[in-house]
Amino acid sequence: MNDEQQAGEKPAPIGPQFAVAAQPSYTRTLFFDAQGLRPGWGFAFYAIPFFLLQQAAVQLAWAHDFGDSGLWSMLLEELGDLIAAVIPAIVLMRVEHRKWGVYGLPMRGALGPRFWTGMLWGLAGISLLMLALYGLHAFTFGHVLLHGRRLIRFAGFWGVYFLVVGLFEEFLLRGYSQFTLARGIGFWRAAIALSCLFGLIHLRNGGEEWRGIWAAAGLGLFFCLTLRRTGNLWFAVGFHAAWDWGETFFYSVPDSGMIAPGHLMSSSLRGSAWLSGGTVGPEGSVLCFVVIGVIWIAFDRLYPHRPLEEELA
Predict the structure, then answer these.
(1) What local confidence, expressed as pLDDT, does residue 197 receive?
(2) What is the pLDDT of residue 308?
(3) Residue 213 burial (CB count, 10 A)
């Protein structure tokens, strides 16, 4: 026994010496990469639970009779849809150890300046479209149908309703889904795919046509631009809610083929469907594409490209 062994040191191992690192399991390699869940799996694990929860939300919302108009059931359905979109994202956020803000709706920006700025843009956008239709004799205002408390009550109801719609649709298609797909195929490829899906979803609306579907897709792509330039979805939520509120309640015309009860005026669209929008509403008019283009250019000038994306908590 030599001196080193007597000192209590172990003899050196025989053969080549390698630092053996623990190898990840096959299951982990299949589902995860260096950034978390692989984008395809992440999207699938989000979409499937959302679909199941959304179906349950629809059933619950219409399980009881809340009145002949069905307005309260409509609101409950949208609230259920929003919850169905949020729950899988919260679970996956914890699985991937991410911050909530990376999905586009940071709590510190909730209903803040960007939201109200988006609302002004949304009201301006739909007003520009309706005034253009009015100037071309494709739209008439009619007369006011609501007064006093009924006016306030319906204006408030539709305001809350479309706020929930804006939150739900923006988060579903431009929140977790956009963030996850962008990791796999890039921001704009994901934006185009999800905007086309946004347009196709409107096929379920009665009275919808292809012009309205393309317009919805165009608006969806614009919302992706606002996400890219502002860093979150609050501008898009405000724009979305205000556009729908102005179209449905204030100007009282069909919204993607749907005519809602409790609108302000006895307005009507007339003339050729390609100009007025026909049963689709103003979003089915060729002028809608012009307005989207004008809004896109104006936003692009006022909100220049951001070289670095911020990750908001």
Answers:
(1) 92
(2) 43
(3) 22
Round to whole Å and give the CA distance between 44 and 243: 31
- Beta carbons of 166 and 116 less than 8 angstroms apart: no
SS3 at position 253: coil
Q: Tell which residue, 155, 159, 157, has the closest CA to residue 146.
A: 155
Nearest to 219 by CA among 272, 256, 274, 177: 256
Q: How confident is the model at residue 17 (pLDDT cuts 50, 70, 90)?
A: very low
Q: Are 224 and 247 in contact (CB under 8 A)?
A: no
By the 8 A CB rule, do 54 and 84 touch? yes
128, with CB counted inside 10 A (0-12, 13-18, 19+), is middle
What does the alpha-carbon distance between residue 195 and residue 101 come to, in Å, rounded to a whole number?
21
| Structural tokens at position 7 | 């000192």
SS3 for 128?
Answer: helix
CB burial of 31-41 (b: ≥16 within 10 Å; e: otherwise) equals bbeeebbbbeb
Does residue 15 carry a pLDDT above 50?
no
CA dist 195 to 38, 50, 239, 261, 264, Å? 22, 18, 16, 28, 30
Give start and end residues of each alpha helix (H) in the chain: 3-6, 26-31, 39-61, 71-96, 113-135, 148-171, 177-185, 187-201, 210-230, 234-245, 273-276, 286-302
- For range 179-183, the mean pLDDT: 94
In the DSSP assignment, the letter for residue 280 is G
57 near 143, Cβ under 8 Å?
no
Confidence of residue 99 (pLDDT cuts 50, 70, 90): very high
CA distance 285 to 304: 29
pLDDT, position 300: 95
Q: Mean pLDDT for the chain?
A: 87
